[in-house]
User: Which sequence fits this backbone?
């Protein structure tokens, strides 16, 4: 598997568009609330791959949709992801000092402000999705119908909540220090990371008004790359470079976390990630070359070093 130069350029190009939107997706700083606005911006605008919103845009494009229509939802996913990182790093959770290439939010702003910044980012995601033109200060009419907007909001809320990411985090906390089975670790990853990945892909399809059959294919692709992404994340926590990753390594083993390497060992975990990559590619078999970006993104997910 060789990562083509094209996908590197694609990732960079989309990152610029997303970051331009993200800058305007949170309220401007006011003197009375300067601290929380700074705390929100500090984590949101830090170094990131932006892989979830990129997946939404790439899926929308692959299905013949407009990226402008997908952008509010793509950015909402990034706001939710950023909130989850801030909370995940808190002393009550993983107690991490380093994230996105800089000290964690609570290390800079204190625990109370970090909790509030996470809460505010999560809430802001729903403001953005339910009133994109208001938030983006544009008077142009919405590109997605109210009915479809509501369906997408429900999809994202479910993926972020107790039936998705939060549920996965609960499993993560409860499995810490416990002997875990492969099935338990897979279930946890499917919810903790996989649910948002799946939503990122499905939302791209929904915005582009993909058919039921296409949505099934996209869901299969989304499930496999979500799992591949988290398995690679587990592997990088063992053998990644902290400077390249922008976060600490070795923390999973120290905290006796249930991970793929802890259950399967490193080599078998890598094989498992490649297997999910192959299944993601297989899912897209019926799609033409417009889905090549999705194929290349799957390759990026499984081959990444950061
Ligand atoms: C509800 C109190 C409360 C907390 C929520 C749900 C949750 C805490 C945390 C989610 C756990 C989580 C973030 C899992 C790891 C997922 C993961 C691999 C994160 C890193 O994602 P990248 O590599 O990061 O895409 P960048 O920085 O590139 O965006």
Assistant:
């Amino acid at each position: 598997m060789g990562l083509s130069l094209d996908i590197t350029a694609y990732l960079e190009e989309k990152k610029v568009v997303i970051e331009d939107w993200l800058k305007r997706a949170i309220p401007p700083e006011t003197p009375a609330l300067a601290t929380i606005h700074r705390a929100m911006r500090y984590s949101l605008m830090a170094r990131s791959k932006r892989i979830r919103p990129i997946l939404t845009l790439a899926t929308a494009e692959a299905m013949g949709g407009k990226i402008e229509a997908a952008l509010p939802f793509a950015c909402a996913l990034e706001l939710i992801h950023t909130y989850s990182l801030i909370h995940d790093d808190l002393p009550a959770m993983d107690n991490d000092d380093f994230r996105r290439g800089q000290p964690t939010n609570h290390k800079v702003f204190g625990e109370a402000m970090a909790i509030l910044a996470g809460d505010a980012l999560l809430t802001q995601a729903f403001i953005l999705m339910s009133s994109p033109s208001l938030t983006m200060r544009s008077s142009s009419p919405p590109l997605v119908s109210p009915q479809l907007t509501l369906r997408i909001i429900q999809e994202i809320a479910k993926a972020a909540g107790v039936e998705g990411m939060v549920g996965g985090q609960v499993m993560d906390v409860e499995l810490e220090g416990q002997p875990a089975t492969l099935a338990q670790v897979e279930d946890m990853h499917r919810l903790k990371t996989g649910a948002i990945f799946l939503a990122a892909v499905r939302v791209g399809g929904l915005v582009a008004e993909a058919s039921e059959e296409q949505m099934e294919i996209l869901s299969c692709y989304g499930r496999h790359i979500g799992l591949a992404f988290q398995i690679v994340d587990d592997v990088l926590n063992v053998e990644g470079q902290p400077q390249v990753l922008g976060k600490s390594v070795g923390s999973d083993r120290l905290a006796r976390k249930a991970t793929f390497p802890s259950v399967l060992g490193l080599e078998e975990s890598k094989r498992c990630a490649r297997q999910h990559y192959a299944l993601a590619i297989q899912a897209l078999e019926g799609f033409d070359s417009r889905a090549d970006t999705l194929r290349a993104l799957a390759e990026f997910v499984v081959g990444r070093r950061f």
Observations:
- Residues 70 and 207 are 6 Å apart (CA to CA).
- The pocket of geranylgeranyl diphosphate is lined by residues 48-49, 51, 81, 84-85, 87-88, 100, 165-166, 169, 192-193, 230, 233 (CB under 6 Å).
